[in-house]
UniProtKB/TrEMBL annotation:
Protein name (Swiss-Prot/TrEMBL): RDD domain-containing protein
TPR repeat boundaries on the chain: 219-252
All residue ranges annotated as the RDD domain in the record: 11-142
Coiled-coil residue windows: none
Transmembrane segments: 54-74, 110-129, 169-193
Membrane topology category: Multi-pass membrane protein
GO cellular component terms, A-Z: cytoplasm; kinesin complex; membrane; microtubule
SMART domains: TPR
Protein backbone atom coordinates (compact mmCIF):
# COMPACT_ATOMS: atom_id res chain seq x y z
CA UNK A 1 0.00 0.00 0.00
CA UNK A 2 1.26 3.50 -0.84
CA UNK A 3 1.93 5.81 2.08
CA UNK A 4 2.91 9.45 1.94
CA UNK A 5 5.85 10.83 3.89
CA UNK A 6 6.15 14.39 5.17
CA UNK A 7 9.13 16.22 6.62
CA UNK A 8 9.07 15.88 10.40
CA UNK A 9 8.29 19.53 11.14
CA UNK A 10 5.11 19.28 9.01
CA UNK A 11 3.54 16.68 11.30
CA UNK A 12 1.23 18.13 13.93
CA UNK A 13 3.13 18.16 17.22
CA UNK A 14 1.88 17.32 20.69
CA UNK A 15 1.28 20.85 22.02
CA UNK A 16 -0.28 22.13 18.81
CA UNK A 17 -2.73 19.25 18.88
CA UNK A 18 -3.43 19.73 22.60
CA UNK A 19 -4.32 23.39 22.00
CA UNK A 20 -6.47 22.43 19.01
CA UNK A 21 -8.31 19.81 21.07
CA UNK A 22 -8.77 22.37 23.87
CA UNK A 23 -10.51 24.74 21.44
CA UNK A 24 -12.78 21.93 20.24
CA UNK A 25 -13.52 21.08 23.87
CA UNK A 26 -15.30 24.43 24.34
CA UNK A 27 -18.35 23.84 22.09
CA UNK A 28 -18.36 20.16 23.02
CA UNK A 29 -18.31 21.08 26.72
CA UNK A 30 -21.25 23.44 26.24
CA UNK A 31 -23.23 20.73 24.44
CA UNK A 32 -22.37 18.13 27.08
CA UNK A 33 -23.27 20.60 29.83
CA UNK A 34 -26.66 21.21 28.21
CA UNK A 35 -27.36 17.46 28.13
CA UNK A 36 -26.37 17.17 31.79
CA UNK A 37 -28.63 20.08 32.77
CA UNK A 38 -31.58 18.53 30.93
CA UNK A 39 -31.14 15.25 32.80
CA UNK A 40 -30.62 17.08 36.12
CA UNK A 41 -34.02 18.64 35.50
CA UNK A 42 -35.49 15.20 34.76
CA UNK A 43 -34.00 13.89 38.03
CA UNK A 44 -35.60 16.78 39.92
CA UNK A 45 -39.00 16.31 38.25
CA UNK A 46 -39.16 12.55 38.81
CA UNK A 47 -37.34 12.70 42.15
CA UNK A 48 -34.76 10.06 41.32
CA UNK A 49 -32.52 9.37 44.30
CA UNK A 50 -31.57 5.69 44.22
CA UNK A 51 -28.04 5.11 43.00
CA UNK A 52 -29.26 2.56 40.46
CA UNK A 53 -31.49 5.17 38.83
CA UNK A 54 -28.73 7.74 38.88
CA UNK A 55 -26.33 5.20 37.37
CA UNK A 56 -28.75 4.48 34.51
CA UNK A 57 -29.19 8.22 33.90
CA UNK A 58 -25.39 8.62 33.91
CA UNK A 59 -25.04 5.87 31.28
CA UNK A 60 -27.64 7.60 29.09
CA UNK A 61 -25.78 10.91 29.45
CA UNK A 62 -22.49 9.20 28.57
CA UNK A 63 -24.00 7.62 25.44
CA UNK A 64 -25.47 10.95 24.33
CA UNK A 65 -22.13 12.67 24.98
CA UNK A 66 -20.37 10.11 22.76
CA UNK A 67 -22.99 10.60 20.02
CA UNK A 68 -22.49 14.39 20.22
CA UNK A 69 -18.72 13.92 20.01
CA UNK A 70 -18.99 11.67 16.94
CA UNK A 71 -21.48 14.02 15.27
CA UNK A 72 -19.17 16.97 15.93
CA UNK A 73 -16.14 15.22 14.48
CA UNK A 74 -17.90 13.76 11.44
CA UNK A 75 -19.92 16.91 10.76
CA UNK A 76 -17.01 19.36 10.80
CA UNK A 77 -14.46 17.11 9.08
CA UNK A 78 -16.84 16.06 6.29
CA UNK A 79 -18.66 19.33 5.63
CA UNK A 80 -16.11 21.95 6.77
CA UNK A 81 -12.86 20.09 6.14
CA UNK A 82 -11.71 20.29 9.77
CA UNK A 83 -12.88 21.04 13.29
CA UNK A 84 -12.62 24.66 14.54
CA UNK A 85 -9.71 23.72 16.79
CA UNK A 86 -7.63 22.10 14.06
CA UNK A 87 -8.52 24.84 11.58
CA UNK A 88 -7.49 27.64 13.95
CA UNK A 89 -4.16 25.94 14.76
CA UNK A 90 -3.43 25.31 11.10
CA UNK A 91 -3.45 21.51 11.12
CA UNK A 92 -5.53 18.87 9.39
CA UNK A 93 -6.16 15.13 9.49
CA UNK A 94 -5.27 13.14 6.37
CA UNK A 95 -5.23 9.48 5.45
CA UNK A 96 -1.76 7.92 5.41
CA UNK A 97 -2.03 7.54 1.61
CA UNK A 98 -2.43 11.30 1.28
CA UNK A 99 -6.16 11.21 0.50
CA UNK A 100 -8.89 12.94 2.46
CA UNK A 101 -10.06 11.01 5.51
CA UNK A 102 -13.20 8.93 5.05
CA UNK A 103 -16.20 8.94 7.37
CA UNK A 104 -15.18 5.44 8.49
CA UNK A 105 -11.71 6.68 9.45
CA UNK A 106 -13.16 9.69 11.28
CA UNK A 107 -15.46 7.46 13.35
CA UNK A 108 -12.73 4.89 14.08
CA UNK A 109 -10.31 7.66 15.04
CA UNK A 110 -12.86 9.36 17.30
CA UNK A 111 -13.77 6.12 19.10
CA UNK A 112 -10.10 5.12 19.36
CA UNK A 113 -9.32 8.40 21.09
CA UNK A 114 -11.21 7.06 24.12
CA UNK A 115 -8.73 4.15 24.22
CA UNK A 116 -5.88 6.66 24.27
CA UNK A 117 -7.58 8.58 27.06
CA UNK A 118 -8.46 5.58 29.23
CA UNK A 119 -4.86 4.40 29.09
CA UNK A 120 -4.05 7.34 31.38
CA UNK A 121 -3.52 9.53 28.31
CA UNK A 122 -0.59 7.40 27.13
CA UNK A 123 -2.07 7.19 23.63
CA UNK A 124 -1.82 10.96 23.26
CA UNK A 125 1.69 11.19 24.71
CA UNK A 126 2.74 8.65 22.06
CA UNK A 127 2.87 11.62 19.69
CA UNK A 128 6.08 12.80 21.38
CA UNK A 129 8.01 9.60 20.61
CA UNK A 130 6.50 8.47 17.32
CA UNK A 131 8.51 9.30 14.18
CA UNK A 132 5.33 10.39 12.37
CA UNK A 133 3.87 12.00 15.51
CA UNK A 134 0.91 9.64 15.44
CA UNK A 135 -1.26 9.10 18.49
CA UNK A 136 -2.75 5.64 19.01
CA UNK A 137 -6.01 6.71 17.38
CA UNK A 138 -4.03 7.75 14.28
CA UNK A 139 -2.35 4.36 14.07
CA UNK A 140 -5.64 2.52 14.51
CA UNK A 141 -7.50 4.65 11.95
CA UNK A 142 -4.60 4.99 9.50
CA UNK A 143 -4.26 8.78 9.64
CA UNK A 144 -1.70 11.54 10.08
CA UNK A 145 -2.12 15.01 11.52
CA UNK A 146 -0.13 17.51 9.46
CA UNK A 147 0.08 21.25 8.91
CA UNK A 148 -2.68 22.59 6.66
CA UNK A 149 -0.28 23.55 3.84
CA UNK A 150 2.03 20.56 4.20
CA UNK A 151 2.86 18.62 1.08
CA UNK A 152 4.22 15.06 1.06
CA UNK A 153 7.88 14.82 0.03
CA UNK A 154 7.67 11.27 -1.23
CA UNK A 155 5.58 8.15 -1.38
CA UNK A 156 6.71 4.79 -0.09
CA UNK A 157 5.27 1.33 -0.41
CA UNK A 158 4.41 -0.37 2.86
CA UNK A 159 2.88 -3.86 2.99
CA UNK A 160 -0.73 -3.74 4.12
CA UNK A 161 0.18 -6.36 6.73
CA UNK A 162 2.65 -3.93 8.26
CA UNK A 163 0.02 -1.21 8.56
CA UNK A 164 -2.47 -3.61 10.08
CA UNK A 165 0.17 -4.77 12.54
CA UNK A 166 0.87 -1.17 13.55
CA UNK A 167 -2.81 -0.48 14.16
CA UNK A 168 -3.24 -3.73 16.06
CA UNK A 169 -0.24 -2.88 18.22
CA UNK A 170 -1.88 0.36 19.35
CA UNK A 171 -5.21 -1.42 19.86
CA UNK A 172 -3.69 -4.32 21.79
CA UNK A 173 -1.54 -2.01 23.90
CA UNK A 174 -4.53 0.10 24.92
CA UNK A 175 -7.06 -2.72 25.40
CA UNK A 176 -5.73 -3.94 28.80
CA UNK A 177 -6.07 -0.41 30.18
CA UNK A 178 -9.65 -0.21 28.91
CA UNK A 179 -10.50 -3.64 30.37
CA UNK A 180 -8.97 -2.68 33.71
CA UNK A 181 -11.02 0.53 33.70
CA UNK A 182 -14.23 -1.41 32.95
CA UNK A 183 -13.58 -4.08 35.61
CA UNK A 184 -12.67 -1.51 38.26
CA UNK A 185 -15.79 0.51 37.37
CA UNK A 186 -18.03 -2.56 37.75
CA UNK A 187 -16.46 -3.43 41.13
CA UNK A 188 -16.84 0.15 42.35
CA UNK A 189 -20.49 0.24 41.25
CA UNK A 190 -21.26 -3.08 42.99
CA UNK A 191 -19.58 -1.91 46.20
CA UNK A 192 -21.41 1.43 46.08
CA UNK A 193 -24.76 -0.30 45.56
CA UNK A 194 -24.08 -2.54 48.55
CA UNK A 195 -23.03 0.44 50.65
CA UNK A 196 -26.15 2.35 49.63
CA UNK A 197 -28.36 -0.56 50.67
CA UNK A 198 -26.66 -0.86 54.07
CA UNK A 199 -26.58 2.91 54.59
CA UNK A 200 -30.32 3.26 53.86
CA UNK A 201 -31.18 0.52 56.37
CA UNK A 202 -28.86 2.03 58.98
CA UNK A 203 -30.33 5.50 58.46
CA UNK A 204 -33.85 4.13 58.92
CA UNK A 205 -32.85 2.27 62.10
CA UNK A 206 -31.24 5.40 63.55
CA UNK A 207 -34.28 7.56 62.76
CA UNK A 208 -36.59 5.00 64.36
CA UNK A 209 -34.48 4.91 67.53
CA UNK A 210 -34.01 8.68 67.80
CA UNK A 211 -37.46 9.93 66.70
CA UNK A 212 -39.73 6.94 67.16
CA UNK A 213 -41.34 4.66 64.53
CA UNK A 214 -43.96 7.20 63.37
CA UNK A 215 -41.77 10.25 62.74
CA UNK A 216 -41.74 11.86 59.22
CA UNK A 217 -37.95 11.32 59.06
CA UNK A 218 -38.61 7.58 59.27
CA UNK A 219 -41.02 7.93 56.34
CA UNK A 220 -38.26 9.65 54.36
CA UNK A 221 -35.88 6.76 55.07
CA UNK A 222 -38.57 4.24 54.16
CA UNK A 223 -39.19 6.02 50.84
CA UNK A 224 -35.50 6.02 50.03
CA UNK A 225 -35.07 2.32 50.79
CA UNK A 226 -38.25 1.42 48.90
CA UNK A 227 -37.08 3.44 45.90
CA UNK A 228 -33.83 1.52 46.00
CA UNK A 229 -35.66 -1.82 45.97
CA UNK A 230 -37.97 -0.61 43.20
CA UNK A 231 -35.02 0.39 41.00
CA UNK A 232 -33.71 -3.17 41.40
CA UNK A 233 -37.12 -4.65 40.51
CA UNK A 234 -37.65 -5.93 44.07
CA UNK A 235 -41.27 -4.83 44.05
CA UNK A 236 -42.46 -7.15 46.82
CA UNK A 237 -39.90 -5.66 49.20
CA UNK A 238 -40.63 -2.08 48.15
CA UNK A 239 -44.42 -2.21 48.53
CA UNK A 240 -44.70 -2.59 52.33
CA UNK A 241 -42.12 0.17 52.81
CA UNK A 242 -44.09 2.58 50.62
CA UNK A 243 -47.30 1.65 52.45
CA UNK A 244 -45.69 2.29 55.82
CA UNK A 245 -44.22 5.62 54.65
CA UNK A 246 -47.67 6.69 53.43
CA UNK A 247 -49.33 5.71 56.71
CA UNK A 248 -46.73 7.63 58.77
CA UNK A 249 -47.11 10.84 56.74
CA UNK A 250 -50.91 10.69 56.74
CA UNK A 251 -50.90 10.23 60.51
CA UNK A 252 -48.35 12.98 61.16
CA UNK A 253 -49.37 15.55 58.54
CA UNK A 254 -52.91 14.75 57.43
CA UNK A 255 -54.09 13.20 54.19
CA UNK A 256 -54.09 16.53 52.27
CA UNK A 257 -50.53 17.61 53.06
CA UNK A 258 -48.22 18.00 49.99
CA UNK A 259 -45.66 15.62 51.54
CA UNK A 260 -48.27 12.86 51.37
CA UNK A 261 -48.30 13.12 47.57
CA UNK A 262 -44.81 11.62 47.26
CA UNK A 263 -45.55 8.21 48.84
CA UNK A 264 -48.88 8.14 46.99
CA UNK A 265 -47.08 8.66 43.67
CA UNK A 266 -44.38 6.16 44.58
CA UNK A 267 -46.90 3.47 45.47
CA UNK A 268 -48.98 4.25 42.36
CA UNK A 269 -45.89 3.95 40.16
CA UNK A 270 -45.03 0.62 41.79
CA UNK A 271 -48.51 -0.77 41.09
CA UNK A 272 -48.23 0.63 37.55
CA UNK A 273 -45.00 -1.33 36.96
CA UNK A 274 -46.61 -4.47 38.36
CA UNK A 275 -49.60 -4.18 36.02
CA UNK A 276 -52.03 -3.40 38.86
CA UNK A 277 -53.58 -0.57 36.89
CA UNK A 278 -56.79 -0.07 38.89
CA UNK A 279 -54.89 0.32 42.18
CA UNK A 280 -52.35 2.61 40.48
CA UNK A 281 -55.07 4.84 39.03
CA UNK A 282 -56.74 5.26 42.41
CA UNK A 283 -53.50 6.37 44.04
CA UNK A 284 -52.59 8.68 41.14
CA UNK A 285 -55.97 10.39 41.51
CA UNK A 286 -55.39 10.84 45.25
CA UNK A 287 -51.96 12.35 44.61
CA UNK A 288 -53.47 14.61 41.93
CA UNK A 289 -56.09 15.87 44.37
CA UNK A 290 -53.39 16.70 46.93
CA UNK A 291 -51.33 18.72 44.42
CA UNK A 292 -54.38 20.51 43.02
CA UNK A 293 -55.23 21.76 46.51
CA UNK A 294 -51.76 23.27 46.71
CA UNK A 295 -52.15 24.96 43.30
CA UNK A 296 -53.92 23.73 40.15
CA UNK A 297 -50.89 24.59 38.01
CA UNK A 298 -48.25 23.20 40.40
CA UNK A 299 -45.46 21.17 38.67
CA UNK A 300 -46.49 18.23 40.86
CA UNK A 301 -49.85 18.22 39.06
CA UNK A 302 -48.06 17.93 35.71
CA UNK A 303 -45.94 15.01 36.92
CA UNK A 304 -48.99 13.05 38.09
CA UNK A 305 -50.86 13.83 34.87
CA UNK A 306 -47.95 12.56 32.78
CA UNK A 307 -47.80 9.32 34.78
CA UNK A 308 -51.57 8.86 34.52
CA UNK A 309 -51.35 9.41 30.76
CA UNK A 310 -48.82 6.58 30.51
CA UNK A 311 -51.16 4.35 32.50
CA UNK A 312 -54.14 5.23 30.30
CA UNK A 313 -52.13 4.40 27.18
CA UNK A 314 -51.30 1.02 28.70
CA UNK A 315 -55.00 0.36 29.22
CA UNK A 316 -56.07 1.54 25.76
CA UNK A 317 -57.56 4.89 26.80
CA UNK A 318 -55.71 6.99 24.22
CA UNK A 319 -58.20 9.87 24.19
CA UNK A 320 -58.01 10.44 27.94
CA UNK A 321 -54.23 10.11 27.83
CA UNK A 322 -53.93 12.85 25.18
CA UNK A 323 -56.08 15.23 27.22
CA UNK A 324 -53.92 14.68 30.29
CA UNK A 325 -50.73 15.19 28.29
CA UNK A 326 -52.04 18.47 26.85
CA UNK A 327 -52.91 19.75 30.31
CA UNK A 328 -49.49 18.68 31.64
CA UNK A 329 -47.77 20.56 28.76
CA UNK A 330 -49.70 23.75 29.56
CA UNK A 331 -48.65 23.51 33.20
CA UNK A 332 -44.99 22.89 32.28
CA UNK A 333 -45.00 25.93 29.97
CA UNK A 334 -46.59 28.10 32.64
CA UNK A 335 -43.95 27.12 35.20
CA UNK A 336 -40.92 27.81 32.98
Amino acid sequence: MECTVYIRKDYGGFWRRIFADSIDAIPLGLAWGAVTEIFKRIIEIYKYSAMTDLFIVSIIILILDIVIFLAYMVGFKVFMGETPGYWSLGIKTVAINGAAVTVKQIVIRAISSFFSLLAFGLGFFWITIDKNKQAWQDKIAGTYVVRSRAMPVRTIEIPRRGLIRTGLFALQFSTPFVLIFIVVSIIVIMVMLKIEDSFSKLQMAINEKVHGPDHPDVARSLNRLARLYESRRKYDEAQPLYNRALAIREKALGSDHPDVAEPLENLARLYHFQGKYAEAETLYKRALAVWEKVRPDHPGVATVLENMAKLYKKTGREGEAERLEERAKRIRLKNR
